[in-house]
Amino acid sequence: MPDLPLSPGSSIGILGGGQLGRMLSQAASRLGFDVVILDPEDNSPAGRVSRGQIVAAYDNETALDVMGRVCDVVTFEFENVPASSVERLARAGALVAPGPMALAVAQDRVSEKTYLNAVGATTVDFAAVDDLEGLRAALDVIGLPALLKTRREGYDGKGQVWIRRKGDARRAWEAIGARPAILEARADFERELSIIAARGRDGAVGLYPPGENVHEGGILRTTTAPATLSPAVSRRARAIAEAVLDGLDYVGVMGIELFALKGGRLLVNEIAPRVHNTGHWTQDGCACDQFEQHIRAIAGWPLGSFEAQARVEMTNLLGPEVEQWRTASGEAGACVHLYGKGEARAGRKMGHINRVLGPARQARAR
Ligand SMILES: Nc1ncnc2c1ncn2[C@@H]1O[C@H](COP(=O)(O)OP(=O)(O)O)[C@@H](O)[C@H]1O
Ligand SMILES: [Mg+2]
Predict the structure, then answer these.
(1) Which fold has domain 125-185?
(2) What does the pLDDT read at residue 362?
(3) Would the CB of 257 count as within 6 Å of ligand 1?
């Protein structure tokens, strides 16, 4: 096991070579670390800005053993890494953060919501669904409309179908591929917020001021941060972050998606045990962004500042929208971030623009 805090010159491994891995790698290299990426796709966005990439599947035992030997700490940029891979890395000698418990909870929407409610982070009502009969029974309990989601491996709104009438049950069940699922009550939210929180190896928890998110077709469009929150809602957000991260003995950055109901009540939608798209604004709004914060936490460094210095609107560039770099690059206050992905398929996250709107205002009651 490596000595902590990890000294510059040490190696950090990242499972996953997408844009989150790329921005983590850039932050790690700023702090003097070497980064090795594991990703099955050669020449990945993260691999191209790192010391090296191992091109292999996430469950390739030889690759995991090499990663575990050459890296002092290993982390991941997406939550669908097999739990057995994390165990194998630990056996090969690397510290792995976040740990296997956070991964297991976040990989399954039913265990995730069960965990959240158990630590007092309330969610919508839900029921586990294993077959069509079970779905019909769940609809009687949850009511209509309801949202059917696959338990595992959904992202960007994929694997989700709204059910508006009981007669739609069969069609919905088939549309998600007749797989183990969760049925959720509809959250009648006024707006969507998210918390980007971090917990250090010493158990210290911090959070950035929550941002307000707009999704279209299940994909994030914009985040505006800091969101305007009453002091009571700000306190509640902090309490949620502390309960959720402490309960998992978590190390690293976590994204916590929230539904804000009328009257200020917060429900937790889902958690992501990694840096999060709704935290990209911190790159141009904070002295220490979410990527550096994650590297600090897993390397056993003190956490950095969570304070917002500017108000920022982050806009995702999806598919062909990546061409907006041409105009945005000449726009005052617009910070262009591109992921180096080749093919601009519809809906693919190609980059984002952080528009600095002005100095950060103190959260005001409303
Ligand atoms: N129970 C719900 N009630 C209302 N809207 C929902 C509910 N669950 C999800 N949504 C909407 O769909 C979006 C994507 O769902 P989410 O569960 O976050 O899945 P993903 O893992 O694909 O991000 C949410 O940000 C929200 O806009
Ligand atoms: Mg989500």
Answers:
(1) Dna Ligase; domain 1 (3.30.1490)
(2) 53
(3) yes
